[in-house]
Amino acid sequence: MATVDVMRLPSAERHEPAHRFDYKGQHRYIVTLPTHKGKTLFTDGDRVFGILGILRQQAAAHRFDVYAYCFLPDRLLLIIRGREETSDMKEFLAGFRGGSNDIVTRLDQHPAWSRKYIERVLRKGEESRDIARQLLLAPVKEGLAKSPSEYPYLGSFVVPVEKLLATKPPVRPPARDKRKPFPPGRTRQSKSAPFRQRDRFRRNH
Q: Do β-strands 19-20 and 8-9 pair in parallel, antiparallel, or remain unpaired?
């Protein structure tokens, strides 16, 4: 049975006990699922695509979108989001881990996953696309591929990978003239203009 840290949300009343976060609803999560004892499992296409099929089945059954996934040799990285108020992240992962464990156990005589996994709820200000881009670049950072397009074990169930990897151009505000505007009909004089007028006055007198 997997164990996770439970997030406690502050209570509205100081004297009431804190409520437990129940992992239900339209929340987004980033999840890391380490393999059993850190074993290298996800280098074989048949195994990876078999487990990917279980992930797709369980996501549909539990009403979750898999925004991005990446199978590294010793762990699976996920960004998932609930589609409905009844979407239960714990039940989704339990169903997926159980089904994929059956595949690996038949092949290797041991479970696929470590008992513990890491999860975090994404905050409102965090962009799914930015985090997905970092996730999809993991194989490049670990020297497994030169680019994400060369790595066969990553993707998304809802968004084209090319769109997730595209960088957004920075938005630059238009340049603002900090000079004070002049009334209509007047033009700006350079700083040296008054001095030229003063020198002309001295020469005439």
A: antiparallel
| 62-94 confidence digits (pLDDT tens) | 999 999 999 999 999 999 999 999 999 999 999
Tell me the domain boundaries of the chain.
8-165
Whether 156 and 164 have beta carbons less than 8 Å apart is answered as yes
Residue range 94-149, pLDDT digits in tens? 999 999 999 898 888 899 999 999 999 999 889 999 999 999 999 999 999 999 99
- At the second CATH level, the architecture of 8-165 is 2-Layer Sandwich (3.30)
Average pLDDT, the chain: 82
Q: Rounded to an integer, what distance in angstroms lies between the CA atom of residue 53 and that of residue 66? A: 12
**pTM for the complete prediction?**
0.73
Q: Is the dihedral of CA 183, 187, 190, 194 positive or negative?
A: negative
Q: What's the pLDDT score for residue 108? A: 85
31 forms beta bridges with: 78, 119
Q: Are 151 and 84 in contact (CB under 8 A)?
A: no
Task: Identify the residue whose tokens are 């840290």.
Answer: 5
19's CB contacts (< 8 A; 6+ apart) are 8, 9, 11
CB distance 74 to 117 below 8 Å: no
Give residue for tokens 């762990």: 75
CA distance 131 to 125: 12
Nearest C-alpha neighbor of 91 from the set 58, 69, 115, 65: 58
Q: What is the DSSP letter of 168?
A: P
